[in-house]
Write a structure and sequence with these properties.
With about 325 residues, the chain is of the alpha+beta class. The protein has a domain of about 140 residues. The protein is built from eight helices and six strands; from the N terminus they run ββββαβαααβαααα. Helix 3 crosses helix 7 and helix 4 packs across helix 7. The N and C termini lie far apart (about 145 Å).
């Protein structure tokens, strides 16, 4: 069956996967490679390759051996898989070792730490992290990776080597350094039953080690909360560059509880209702005063008309017709 050398912008790289005890047949897997062109450009895009349809057992060691088999050693720098990029964008569990208000205060008003303090902070976060239950991750089927090479020239060489592999039909072997059967396997933990046995063992960590991680997490949480409380206390009496003082509740800068928020909302609605009533009463007072003025005007006009009528009646008795 003929394998196309390119599909759209992608170069097709066939790799030979050797037989395994669980599947004793040699198969060919296809990787799709192109230059990395992310939506948000970075300074390393020119020397990066975007690889999709990576095998589920992919590791950085596998991709390193693959690049080495194509263009030799010294060209591969690093590889980042799709799930690792998502984890980098999401906060780590250790990042939760602080209340939400503390995270905001420390990010905005926290002082710049010295290198020794940063190293000590990283050590605390490492102690607070619960050990993983897996010795090796599995990738999502059809997942992607970004391979960072030494320079832009290396990207050209890899793409040319992929085109050459189609002509010679000599495909690199997955999981073997140098891409040949005589190469050595990359230093990665094995899969299969050994991987599952290791997972079962790591799922029940030593009680003392687990307690140490929990204690370190609690201590880190308390330290960050105390530091945030000190910052909040300082901000209550320290005006900013515009002359304003940050208003905080007690030693916290956190939002009010739900009951307090409901009470504040009720007071605001009550205040608005009273304001509308006062406004309506004011309009009602104006209307009442206007009606009184109109009534007084009508009474005055009635009195004037009555006087005129009485004057006409008094003149009627003195009327003398002409002869």
């Amino acid at each position: 069956m003929s394998i196309p050398a390119t599909i759209g912008d992608f170069s097709v790289l066939p790799v030979s996967i050797p037989p395994l005890p669980s599947f004793p047949r040699k198969v060919v897997h296809h990787l799709y490679v192109r230059r990395s062109t992310p939506k948000i450009p970075t300074e390393t895009d020119a020397r990066s390759l975007f690889v999709t349809n990576v095998p589920v057992d992919s590791t950085e060691a596998h991709l390193r051996s693959l690049v080495t088999s194509l263009v030799g050693s010294g060209r591969f720098e690093s590889a980042t898989f799709e799930d690792e990029r998502k984890d980098a964008n999401n906060p780590s569990p250790v990042a939760a070792a602080q209340p939400a208000s503390a995270a905001i205060l420390l990010r905005v008003h926290g002082r710049k730490r010295k290198r020794e303090e940063e190293e000590e902070e990283r050590d605390k976060e490492t102690l607070a992290r619960i050990p993983s239950a897996w010795t090796r991750p599995l990738r999502r089927s059809g997942g992607t990776a970004v391979v960072l090479l030494a320079d832009e020239k290396s990207v050209e060489q890899v793409l040319k080597a992929i085109a050459k592999a189609h002509k010679t039909r000599k495909y690199p072997t997955w999981g073997l350094a140098g891409g040949s059967a005589g190469g050595k396997a990359p230093p990665v933990p094995p899969l299969g039953s050994a991987w599952l046995r290791a997972h079962n063992r790591l799922s029940y960590p030593d009680r003392a080690a687990l307690q140490a991680s929990v204690d370190a997490f609690s201590a880190l949480f308390a330290d960050r909360e105390r530091e945030a409380a000190e910052i909040a206390k300082r901000l209550r009496n320290e005006p900013d560059e515009d002359g304003f003082v940050t208003v905080t509740r007690g030693a916290r800068a956190a939002p009010a509880s739900q009951s307090e928020a409901e009470e504040a909302r009720r007071k605001m609605l009550e205040k608005e209702r009273k304001r509308k009533e006062e406004l309506a009463n004011f309009y009602r007072f104006q209307l009442r005063e206007r009606r009184k003025e109109e009534q007084a005007e009508l009474l005055k006009r009635f009195a004037d008309d009555r006087k005129k009528l009485d004057a006409m009646r008094s003149k009627k008795g003195k009327f003398v017709p002409e002869t």
